[in-house]
Amino acid sequence: MKSILLTLTLSLFLTLGHMFAQDGYQVGDEATIFNLLNVNGEMVSPDDFPEAKGFIIVFTCNHCPYAIKYEDRIQALHEEFESQGYPVIAINPNDAEAYPSDSYDAMIVRAQEKGFTFPYLHDETQAIAKAFGATRTPHTYLVRRVEGKLIVEYIGAIDDSYNGEDIQHKYVEMAIAALESGQEVALNYTKAVGCSIKWKK
């Protein structure tokens, strides 16, 4: 009887885990080619960067304390890896009606204040965040371009220290290093830590 219950319990966990895993992209999935409004007033798509090997796509926002703590590190990632073929594309998916500090106009101001040199896009309908399965700000997806498609290679946190102190593991940098050396990304998923995305009701 115990073995039957154990088998049923394990089966239930596996089923629930499988169901959860289908919510958004998983490593190895093909990501959609989006086209969103940038803070400079232009529409931006990954297709606008034909020389890029891939992208560091970060779902973030203006008001979340975690996102604010990561702003300088996101900028540093772009400055280091754009020349290596992996530029940053940041996307703000938050409901601006409920959180005016995350409005498009506020995004423009924040980008200017911080001197962002990467695209900071407004996911007004939240369709792209939902497609990716993003749940936090920041939530990071490293995608690699393969025959014109964007293949997800890593999902999760940028590193292991939300406040930037005593960083032991730079997950995104480790993933890019693996790809650049022709290896698979060994640690391809970590838990994103941050504020929950503010979904429209």
If you had to describe this structure to a student in words, what would you say it looks like?
The protein has 201 residues and is of the alpha+beta class. The chain has one domain (26-196): Glutaredoxin, CATH 3.40.30. Helices cover 32% and strands 20% of the residues. It is built from 5 helices and 10 strands. It has helices at residues 2-21, 65-81, 104-114, 127-132, 171-180; strands spanning 30-31, 36-38, 43-44, 54-59, 88-92, 120-122, 136-137, 139-146, 149-156, 195-196. An 8-stranded mixed β-sheet has the order 1-9-8-4-5-6-2-3. The protein starts with a helix and ends in a 5-residue tail after the last strand. The model is unreliable at 1-22 (pLDDT under 50).
List the helices and strands and how they pair.
Layout: H1 2-21, E1 30-31, E2 36-38, E3 43-44, E4 54-59, H2 65-81, E5 88-92, H3 104-114, E6 120-122, H4 127-132, E7 136-137, E8 139-146, E9 149-156, H5 171-180, E10 195-196
Parallel strand pairs: 4-5, 5-6
Antiparallel strand pairs: 1-9, 2-3, 2-6, 4-8, 7-10, 8-9
